[in-house]
């Protein structure tokens, strides 16, 4: 009917124009065809103007004002964030996790807080980019647990994740937790700024320790997250038996080239790949380097220097820029607290920096390497068989270690706290109470590049028992756990 009316109107207008034109002598330069085309164009223009005048205006998206800034109302633009009917929605997940700590909170309480614009605040990340954040926090026994919504112009409203706005947290992808599922991939991407390969590069034969391949970690890291390849060379690895130094050198060259195969160039949009050249070189004692190690067998006490220089020159050969495309790292355990192990590692790193500088003909200040101090703890209030772990350090011991190793790596080096886990714990609250003073101190120092949690996405009770060693960021069904919301509170308090 509408098309008929429009067609009728066009014909009427054309007849009127044609009739009027018949009484006048048209200019000789204008043809009948041109006049007809002009008539149709005028008619269509009149119809379009009529339709525009009668069309209903498009309703505008409701806005809220936050600290003088107008932003879209999240309840209208993103109703899924307010959905309390689905267990995996943000509010129900938070409420269920908080209840495990004995804290009484309801979905409606969170909804009421979300409806109040006074709970939204304008913030700024470390790059000066503004964003809006809503935070809902509950407290128990001196610990805070927060969920947050966040808004910026590029991405709109979303639930804030651990890898959003100045994240300093990394997750370990290792063992049977590394499943090829969309949910696992999404959780890893949204909550880990550093993908830590764990021991997946170790070619072990015991099924108990058999780990997935490094290609999996490269895929998880993508372009936006750092890839941290752990234990490139490791004293306890199962190396083949070699008869000559030439065979050992050939193996080291082959392993290095394999490690470099996972490095992607920064000019192609990737974050730098960190290669852990030596892990736990002092693992057998405090009085020297581990003799049961292919690098020590090959290079003696110069293992740090020789493997660094070999890796450096191979990077040049492959057209990779140190510090931009690839970074070198050493790591060790039991280095927190004034003990023999800390002193041995300190001496090894300081000596290596001087020797590397001489080999390469550069200043020691220009020698780039990072260091990771492991934080594999046990609950000293519930001692038992905790494996190779250490008693929780005091905040002073932790801070002293942070200051010492950050000074060694220098301004061009990065300091990591890696393999964070706590054994012999029964509840997430026990884990959080042990870790909280150390994490809070490390974050406030500004000297730790990233905190990496061991087996944080593992859901199988095998080598890393879920109830025993990892920090329970996620439950078996991948919903967020209590520890997740504790870390979120740390993040929201930073900026």
Task: Give the arrangement of secondary structure elements.
Blueprint: H1 2-22, H2 32-54, E1 63-66, E2 69-72, H3 74-77, H4 90-99, H5 107-114, E3 120-124, E4 130-140, E5 143-152, E6 156-159, E7 169-172, H6 182-191, E8 194-196, H7 214-221, E9 226-229, H8 245-260, E10 273-279, H9 294-299, H10 303-317, E11 326-332, H11 340-360, E12 370-378, H12 395-409, E13 415-423, H13 428-445, E14 450-453, H14 482-494
Parallel strand pairs: 7-8, 7-14, 8-9, 9-10, 10-11, 11-12, 12-13, 13-14
Antiparallel strand pairs: 1-2, 3-4, 4-5, 5-6
Helix pairs in contact: 1-2, 8-10, 10-11, 11-12, 12-13, 13-14
Describe this structure in words.
It is a single chain. By secondary structure, this protein is α/β, with parallel strands linked by helices. It folds into two domains: 63-159, no CATH class; 169-480, TIM Barrel. Helices cover 38% and strands 17% of the residues. The protein is built from 14 helices and 14 strands. The strands form three sheets. An eight-stranded parallel beta barrel has the order 7-8-9-10-11-12-13-14, surrounded by four helices. Strands 3-4-5-6 form a four-stranded antiparallel beta sheet, with helices on both faces. Strands 1-2 form a two-stranded antiparallel ribbon. It is globular. Mean pLDDT is 81; it is low at 1-7, 13-17, 20-24, 200-212 and 461-468.
* Name of the CATH first level of the largest domain: Alpha Beta
Which strand order does the major sheet show?
7-8-9-10-11-12-13-14
Radius of gyration: 31 Å
Low-confidence residue ranges: 1-7, 13-17, 20-24, 200-212, 461-468
Task: Output the CATH homologous superfamily of the largest domain.
Answer: Glycosidases
Q: Which range best describes the helical content: under 10%, 10-25%, 25-40%, 40-55%, 55-70% or over 70%? A: 25-40%
Judging by the overall fold, what is the CATH architecture of the largest domain?
A: Alpha-Beta Barrel
């Amino acid at each position: 009917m509408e098309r008929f009316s429009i067609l009728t109107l066009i014909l009427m207008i054309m007849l009127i124009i044609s009739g009027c034109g018949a009484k006048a002598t048209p200019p000789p330069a204008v043809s009948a065809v041109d006049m007809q085309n002009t008539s149709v164009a005028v008619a269509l223009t009149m119809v379009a103007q009529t339709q525009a005048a009668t069309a209903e205006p498009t309703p505008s998206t409701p806005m809220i004002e936050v600290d003088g800034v107008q932003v879209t109302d999240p309840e209208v633009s993103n109703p899924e964030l307010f959905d309390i009917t689905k267990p995996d929605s943000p509010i129900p997940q938070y409420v269920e996790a908080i209840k495990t700590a004995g804290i009484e909170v309801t979905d409606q309480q969170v909804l009421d807080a979300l409806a109040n614009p006074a709970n939204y605040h304008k913030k700024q990340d470390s790059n000066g980019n503004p964003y809006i954040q809503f935070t809902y926090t509950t407290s128990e026994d001196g610990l805070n647990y927060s969920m947050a919504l966040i808004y910026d112009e590029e991405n709109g409203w979303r639930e804030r994740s651990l890898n959003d706005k100045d994240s300093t947290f990394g997750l370990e992808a290792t063992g049977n937790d590394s499943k090829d599922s969309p949910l696992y991939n999404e959780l890893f991407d949204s909550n880990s700024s550093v993908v830590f390969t764990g021991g997946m590069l170790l070619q072990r034969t015991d099924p108990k320790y058999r780990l997935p391949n490094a290609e999996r970690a490269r895929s998880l890291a993508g372009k936006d997250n750092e890839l941290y390849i752990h234990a490139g060379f490791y004293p306890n690895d199962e190396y083949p038996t070699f008869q000559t130094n030439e065979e050992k050198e050939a193996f080291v060259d082959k392993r290095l080239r394999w490690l470099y195969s996972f490095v992607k160039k920064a000019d192609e949009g990737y974050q730098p790949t960190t290669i852990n050249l030596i892990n736990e070189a002092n693992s057998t004692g405090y009085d020297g380097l581990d003799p049961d190690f292919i690098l020590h067998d090959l290079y003696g006490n110069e293992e740090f220097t020789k493997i660094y220089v070999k890796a450096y020159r191979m990077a040049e050969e492959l057209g990779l820029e140190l510090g931009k495309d690839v970074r070198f790292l050493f790591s060790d355990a039991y280095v927190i607290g004034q003990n023999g192990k800390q002193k041995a590692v300190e001496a090894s790193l300081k000596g290596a920096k001087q020797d590397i500088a001489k080999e390469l003909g550069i200043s020691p200040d220009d020698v780039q390497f990072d260091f990771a101090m492991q934080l594999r703890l046990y609950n000293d209030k519930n001692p038992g068989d905790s494996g190779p772990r250490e008693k929780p350090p005091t905040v002073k011991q932790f801070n002293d270690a942070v200051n010492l190793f950050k000074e060694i790596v220098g301004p061009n080096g990065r300091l990591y706290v890696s393999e964070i886990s706590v054994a012999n714990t029964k509840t997430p609250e026990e884990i959080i109470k042990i870790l909280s003073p150390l994490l809070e101190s490390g974050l406030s120092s500004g000297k730790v590049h990233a905190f990496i949690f061991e087996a944080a996405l593992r859901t199988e009770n095998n080598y890393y028992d879920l109830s025993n060693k990892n920090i329970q960021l996620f439950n078996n069904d991948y919903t967020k756990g209590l520890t997740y919301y504790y870390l979120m509170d740390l993040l929201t308090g930073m900026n």
